[in-house]
Amino acid sequence: MSGEEAPTQQQEPEQVKKPDEPPPAAAPAPAEATPESGSNRPAAAEEEKTISYRALVLTGYGGYEKIKLQVKSMNKSQLKAGEVLVRVKACGLNFAELLGKQGLYDLLPSPPITLGMEGSGVIEAVAEDVTDRKVGDRVIAMNRHGMWQELAVVPANRTFPIPEAMSFEEAAALPVNYMTAYMMLFEMANLRPGKSVLIHMAAGGVGIAVTQLCQTVQDVTIFGTASASKHETISQGGVTHPIDYRTKDYVTEIRKISPKGVDIVLDPLGGSDSQKGFSLLKPLGMLIVFGAANCVTGQKKNLLAMAKTWYNQLTLNTLKLMQTNKAISGFHLGYIHDEGLFEKTLVKLLELYQQGKIKPRIDSCYHFEEVAEAMKRMHDRQNIGKIILLPEPKKSEEKPKSNAEAAENAEKNEAAVSEKKEEPAEEVEAERD
User: What is the pTM of this model?
Assistant: First the structure.
């Protein structure tokens, strides 16, 4: 991917239950308070602090079957300074997870590792030194990995209060995509009135975020590539000129409309598309490469696709840049270490949401048991907007929610943790298509 990823090292306080291990035993009931049993109180109290939860764990590189739904456990008293414990209600799926599954995401530690960089939920516990967050707060939470689980330990400074009108699904859809789009457009490309922008994969999470943010600036022309079936939706969303990349050469189509080219090209594809993007730039224009989606062609690593992308990558020298008066930049959210910029950007995005200027579009919601279906939908580029994963166990008759259903049933005002007791279970393999 794309640089769609949140930059903080995730603490892994829990211990993964291996496939051949029995399920965790239920905690015994506390002994009655009698003079003889008084000495048992500390042990009983300690047992009460140990909690079990479900997590999506990448057990190795390869296909969808490498992601296992496992039961893990942690001690609630293990919070370190500056940390909070979040009961996760919704998680975002990003292209980074597709790359990570294949071993192509350099910021993800080696398996076994819990995936997920963004989520939303309710704070269940805070470290003693945390004063600006409290139990019961509804928050957006981000980390480098470890968000695809029912309970997540995250740094308090990577949690952000959710506006009252925002659902958990919208909150999980906002951070990675919109921060990526905002920083590229306004911190790097300095988008101004009257400019033109080309965004590939315009119906994806970043594409829709870019489209909405461009509309906060006057008179910006947006070119967006997407399959023909998505053109009506992205046009209604603000794309000025949708282009079907599957049946037409987008360079030729853009030149027909704008012979001089465009001012800004946002490229999540890499390879030959970076060359085309550079050729489309007007003088003083900027190409921003933020991904290498062309490397992913199937469930498993494709060395031929990787080699082709590498061979076709854009190669220039500084003299060429001077002679063409063009700029090239790279962007990866995972390598943004400026805490002030990170916080300022997300706070600004939440303000724009409250002003009604941006609103995450939810494509579909899948339960943890359906993670393979969710990832396949993204891989096949069927989504229009954000795909959300739900930690809540799936009911047997329940089907994945469409965009309309998700919007209708979004949780908007939940302020307390729903306490649900699950029977411990052995590892459950996530469903496969």
Answer: 0.79
